[in-house]
Specification:
The protein has 118 residues and is α/β, with parallel strands linked by helices. It has a single domain, classed as 2,3-Dihydroxybiphenyl 1,2-Dioxygenase, domain 1 (Roll), CATH 3.10.180. The chain has helices at 16-25, 71-80, and strands at residues 10-12, 30-35, 38-42, 49-53, 63-67, 85-92, 95-101, 107-113.
């Protein structure tokens, strides 16, 4: 799979209802149904939308980058809900980042962008 370079990635899941519930309840995204095998998760007040489908898509990815204003707060919230992180928040050249995976093998990167003074 390739790295996401869009604000509208396509991901494949095995259980649409389970995935939609995760995006709604854990990530605070609004779910728009397309049909019984696909939906769109939309982050209100941003341009971020994620196309979720049980079917394969030519542009699908397994790496999703989610911008956050507070990586540590989001990390603690998700961890309290049972999300297992592969990587706790740590500093990168672009800011603070944490990583977790879903039950379908997709990897999510929470990123709090920061500009460091030199």
């Amino acid at each position: 799979m390739s790295e996401v370079t869009t604000d509208s990635p396509h991901i494949k899941v095995d259980d649409l209802v389970h995935a939609a519930t995760f995006f709604r309840d854990f990530l605070g995204m609004h779910i728009k149904s397309i049909n019984e095998k696909s939906c769109v998760a939309v982050k209100l007040n941003t341009e971020m939308s994620i196309f979720i489908s049980e079917d394969s898509h030519s542009d699908q990815t397994d790496q999703i980058y989610l911008n956050t204003d507070d990586c540590i707060e989001q990390y603690c919230f998700l961890k309290s809900k049972g999300v297992v992180f592969n990587r706790a928040p740590s500093y990168t050249p672009d800011g603070l980042m944490a990583e977790f995976a879903d039950d379908f093998g997709n990897r999510y990167f929470l990123i709090e962008l920061r500009k460091y003074n030199e």
